[in-house]
């Protein structure tokens, strides 16, 4: 199975990102839907703040780090993440924040557009978790148990199986500082800024509502590109 480095072009294509990083090159991607399109699961005010303030901040800070460290010039975002241990903590935090949120927007869609998991993805989920419902239960439990801020992921491992993992802060499974490593095909942000306006401290309510806007068409495409 081809994983990580061989997926630079594929991941960049899926995330609509430039392949190379030069000073001030990284840009905030546009949302693939209107800010109110995921309501009531995610309200428009939360989407606006999350995208235009938080994600924009990660992009701005990452560009500042690129300007300060000449080793980052000419690297793709994925290359930065895969060698992130060599760089300042601010690179890890902000490159992670940019990648994670770029993926997050695309693995969600308005409820009428979410589709269903492909036959291939469904079969792998059944093989690795027993059923789709069992997978959702395990994923939700993992996300709910993250202490403080972080992310829950569905990743394709180097041996081609699916695995649920969690990371703190803005870390992700592409980073050489994280275990297990793999290709993320689904990610859930459980930082409080992702849900507090609407759900306050009720993280499980947010997680349950989020399943209504998971874009299975996108997740299935990402899974197919790892085969």
Describe this structure in words.
It is a single chain. With 227 residues, the chain is mainly α. 45% of the residues lie in helices and 9% in strands. It has helices at 8-15, 44-68, 77-82, 89-106, 119-129, 132-144, 196-199, 203-210, 216-224; strands spanning 150-156, 162-168, 183-189. A three-stranded antiparallel beta sheet has the order 2-1-3. A hairpin with a 5-residue loop joins strand 1 (150-156) and strand 2. The termini are close together. The model is unreliable at 1-9 and 16-23 (pLDDT under 50).
Average the pLDDT over all residues and give the rounded result. 92
Strand proportion = 5-15%
Radius of gyration, CA atoms, in whole angstroms = 17 Å
Strand order of the largest sheet: 2-1-3
Q: How many discrete domains?
A: 2
CATH class of the largest domain equals: Alpha Beta
**Residue windows where pLDDT falls under 50 for at least 5 positions:** 1-9, 16-23
Most strands sheet: 3 strands, antiparallel
From the 3D coordinates, which CATH architecture of the largest domain would you assign?
Answer: 3-Layer(bab) Sandwich
Secondary-structure element series: HHHHHHEEEHHH
Q: Please estimate the helix content.
A: 40-55%
Measure the end-to-end span: 6 Å
Described by the principal axes of the CA atoms, the overall outline is: globular
């Amino acid at each position: 199975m081809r994983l990580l480095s061989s997926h630079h072009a594929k991941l960049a294509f899926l995330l609509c990102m430039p392949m190379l990083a030069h000073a001030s090159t990284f840009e905030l991607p546009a949302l693939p839907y209107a800010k109110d399109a995921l309501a009531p699961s995610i309200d428009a005010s939360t989407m606006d703040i999350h995208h235009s303030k938080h994600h924009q901040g990660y992009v701005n800070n990452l560009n500042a780090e690129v300007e300060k460290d000449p080793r980052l010039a000419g690297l793709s975002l994925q290359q930065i993440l895969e060698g992130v241990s060599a760089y300042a903590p601010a690179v890890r935090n902000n490159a992670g924040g940019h990648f994670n949120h770029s993926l997050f927007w695309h693995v969600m869609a308005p409820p009428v557009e979410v589709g269903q998991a492909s036959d291939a993805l469904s079969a792998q989920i059944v093989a690795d978790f027993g059923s789709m419902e069992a997978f959702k239960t395990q994923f939700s439990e993992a996300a709910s148990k993250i202490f403080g801020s972080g992310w829950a992921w569905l990743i394709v491992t180097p041996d081609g199986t699916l695995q649920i993992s969690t990371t703190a802060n803005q870390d992700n499974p592409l980073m050489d500082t994280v275990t297990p490593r793999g290709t993320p095909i689904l990610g859930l942000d459980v930082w409080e800024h992702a849900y507090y306006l609407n759900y306050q401290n009720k993280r499980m309510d947010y997680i349950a509502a989020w399943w209504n806007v998971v874009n299975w068409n996108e997740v299935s495409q990402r899974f197919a590109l790892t085969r």
